[in-house]
Amino acid sequence: MQHPGNLFVVAAPSGAGKSSLVKALRELDAHVSPSVSHTTRAPRGQEKHGREYFFASEQEFDAMVANNAFVEWANVHGKRYGTSKRALADRLAGGADVLLEIDYQGALQVKQAFPEAVLIFILPPSWEELRARLENRGEDSPEVIELRLKNASEEMAQVGKFDFVIINELFETALFDLKAIIHAQRLKYAAQRSARADTFASLNIT
Ligand SMILES: Nc1nc2c(ncn2[C@@H]2O[C@H](COP(=O)(O)OP(=O)(O)O)[C@@H](O)[C@H]2O)c(=O)[nH]1
Ligand SMILES: Nc1ncnc2c1ncn2[C@@H]1O[C@H](COP(=O)(O)OP(=O)(O)O)[C@@H](O)[C@H]1O
Q: Binding of ATP: at which residues (predicted)?
């Protein structure tokens, strides 16, 4: 079996720029593989089943919960979202670095299951800017935007439980920070692996 890859988790209040940052990162770094979540929310304009999400009915989601098919799942803004075990295990075992874009509740569940996971939280520079980004994105109704802003303060209160925090003010700076965290974790992991290999060799363990 190939060596398992690194696991990164990125969380943020809605509108902070998480999806845009992860998309830009993936264009620069082909070794980061996303995991496609299941959700009970309806698809937005351009979204495709199996690409952004697997869109599931409440009954389908219930069945997956009952079958213990999720690594983590949570209620977010009144809908359910979850990472399936299948989506994660195959990619990690194949040696890919996997990046999960999930909410803080899911991130903390992942840390329980995988203590070596690296948790990254993305903050907006201000409340005004967060609201402006949600409004300018033009994807959500005013009621949905208000709900997301209301939930943002509870989400942001969790920032201390994360390993790293990025403030997404200037996009290019935030992207640089995200790349740096991922690069540093890869180096650390590679160093640990080679130290282990040296020890194994000196002990004649193959
Ligand atoms: N726990 C958990 N949260 C998820 C998952 N997939 C997406 N989310 C989170 O659900 C929230 C809503 O996502 P979405 O409806 O796509 O809207 P967005 O916040 O504008 O990107 C975001 O905080 C996502 O990170 C998942 O598999 N598990
Ligand atoms: N640094 C930034 N400066 C200005 N606008 C940004 C920045 N980062 C993202 N945006 C814009 O803000 C909106 C929300 O970003 P998005 O990536 O959809 O957020 P999230 O996935 O966190 O909900 C989008 O319209 C995006 O283009």
A: 12-19
Q: Is residue 133 part of a domain?
A: yes
Q: Is 18 in the pocket of ligand 2 (CB under 6 A)?
A: yes
Mean pLDDT throughout 54-81?
96
| CATH code (residue 165) | 3.40.50.300
108: in domain: yes
Tell me, yes or no, whether 50 lies in a domain.
Answer: no
Number of the ligand 2 atom closest to the C-alpha atom of 122: 22
Distance from the CA of 116 to the center of ligand 2, in angstroms?
28
Mean pLDDT in residue range 16-21: 96
Distance of CA 63 to CAs 52, 56, 59, 67, 125, Å? Answer: 21, 10, 6, 6, 40
To the nearest 10°, report the CA torsion of 152, 55, 17, 177. 110
Calculate what percentage of the chain has a pLDDT beyond 90.
76
Q: Does residue 138 lie in a domain region?
A: yes
Q: How confident is the model at residue 87 (pLDDT cuts 50, 70, 90)?
A: confident
Residue 76 parent element (H or E): strand 70-76
Q: What is the ipTM of this complex?
A: 0.95
Of 23, 85, 102, best ligand 1 pocket probe by most atoms within 8 Å of the beta carbon? 102
Domain holding 123, by residue range, is 7-35+97-202
Residue 71 clears pLDDT 90, i.e. is over it: yes
Overall number of domains in the chain = 1
